[in-house]
Design brief:
The chain is of the alpha/beta class and 252 residues long. The chain has a single domain (5-250), classed as Rossmann fold (3-Layer(aba) Sandwich), CATH 3.40.50.150. The protein is built from nine helices and seven strands; from the N terminus they run αααβαβαββαβαααββ. Strands 3-2-1-4-5-7-6 form a seven-stranded mixed β-sheet, sandwiched between helices. Helix 4 (72-81) links the parallel strand 1 and strand 2 (86-91). Helix 2 (18-40) crosses helix 5 and helix 3 packs across helix 4 (72-81). The longest helix is centred in the N-terminal third of the chain and has 23 residues, at 18-40. The chain is globular, with a radius of gyration of 17 Å.
Length: 252
Amino acid sequence: MTVTAEQRAPGAPGVLEEPQVRAMFDRIARLYDRMNTVMTAGMHHRWRRRAADLAGVTPGSRALDVATGTGDLAFELLGRVAPGGEVVATDFSERMLEIARAKAFARAGSAESGPAAVRFETANALALPYRDDEFDAATVGFGARNFSDLDAGLREMVRVVRPGGRVVVLEITSPQRPPLSTFFELWFDRAVPAIGRIAGDAQAYSYLPNSVRRFPDPAELAEVMARYGLVGIRYIITAGGIIALHVGEVAG
């Protein structure tokens, strides 16, 4: 799928200004985990595990999860960097971070300290408040298509990862062949917005299929990643062509 300038332009379907995206995620924070489970039949946890595996982190590593939402990918990373490592997870939605911290509290007994805690911080993915080469890996799960500037977001992720470290992008993609393409269209274009209406936020879950449609296809995303200094880029298409996992190493 080729994404045109018109599709990326403000006001196009699936495109919202940054304050609108933040407000939307604040609004749906309480629904987010439940809706993810419904929309993916619970498979999103498996996909996050694969993304964490691709990050290549080990005990003692430092990892960054960008646009962490309610923190599920950050928790997967934590299991791989402990003991002795650290996971920092960022989002610009305070309501999503509130839920992530509550989940951390339930897991570790404290959201602020302890060997099993993720450090959740408010940050904009397009201007990360971290030094160059600070992390061994950076991940983003189901968040890159919400970046108001994909190039800037990927550039920032590459900047904060040391040479030889990895950047991983987990995203929904549009299958190209039937019957999956037909199912995808029916599910995301009709069923998901209907579920969103029942859940109380039709706008947010109408935005979802449009945001997927305007996002670069896997080959195009690999090209964008290469543009910002990643090498050895590969991607895995899974779930019948609905999910793409990209990984690349920061050039030395």
